[in-house]
Predict the structure.
Amino acid sequence: MKQEKLHFFTERLAAWFAGNHRPLPWKGEQDPYRIWLSEIILQQTRVEQGMPYFERFCREFPTVADLAAAPEDAIMKAWEGLGYYSRARNLHAAAKYVAYERGGVFPATYEGIRQLKGVGPYTAAAIASFAYGLPYAVVDGNVYRVLSRFGGIAEPIDSAGGKKTFAQLAQRALEVAPLPPGSYNQAIMDFGATHCKPKAPFCTDCPLSRECSAFQKGKVGLLPVKEKKIKRKKRFFHYLVANYGAEVLIHKRTGRDIWQNLYEFPLLEWPEAAASEEQIRRSAPWATLIGDRGAVVRQVSPPQQQALTHQQIQAVFWEVEVEGPPPAASELGPFIRAERKNLSKFAFPKIIDCYLGDNSLYLKLV
DNA sequence: AAGCCGGGGCG
DNA sequence: CGCCCAGGCTT
């Protein structure tokens, strides 16, 4: 892109920003800990969705030392429902690193920030510019969209070459912008989020449209270009809600799969949608935990749905009253006993959280 | 380079 | 129902 056009872009953007920026709780924030927290929360997450989580983390974990000292389960619980739970696990690891190996001092260089777990190029640039005024351009979904449209650049944003192209262009723009790095980064993201939106952008009322290649060519709707399309695999879960008086059994998910370190009921995964009650009774974990001592109270239907990025989860909840005491500790295996009234203390995936909410009446009465 | 990791909002 | 969101890690 010609230098002249780049100047036009940054000057018009700065003028737009002067009258349109979004007032957000973390704007003007000086504390690198809070800036880091907000950026991790906002990864692949809408501002409105992340806001209450940011407030909660600031309240429950006011300093990096508080976060480092917290039990992982407490952090997972605070993160419950936000998704991409590796962010929470990495957040904890990074907090312990800063608190215990750096004496509580947050890194103040791009490279130092980039070393933190869960911090990639975008987040490092965001923290470096917001907290320390360092000249690193952020490249997030908004930036890809704004630059690809304004520059008329059809190079795929999810290719190696495209990432490099847009990163270089973003950096050039930051360096000629009549704004400090942090403000410039805020400006281009606010502009992308509220004006140059994915759908129905405000092109007819846009201060950049005169030089916007996509607008001039009528190709706004075709940019940015992505080349990879995701395919969603279907999975069929059967959750065994085994009630022993006031207690149920749960376990923590481990291993390389979704929802790591979250809790759930004993799970039977079935390769296809149809599974008879007889098949489920004969399979683990039902057969091992309950045998023939269980009476089905209710099979929650229809199956509950949960869409993930690469998977479509279909879950059936089997509520079972089991005669006799819960299994002895030696026979519990990975499962733990929990009183139903204490289930809210554990972090569950959304599909189970929804089930617990919808069935709170049953859970209180029985 | 490709695959994987949540959940919600919107057209 | 498909796309997108203040992306990053693993393989």
User: Anything to note?
Assistant: Residues 3-20 of chain A form the longest helix (18 residues). Residues 38-47, 49-50, 84, 86-87, 90, 117-123, 126, 138, 140-143, 145, 185-186, 189, 192-193, 198-199, 226, 256 of chain A lie near DNA strand C (CB under 10 Å from a C1'). Chain A has two domains: 3-222, 233-365.
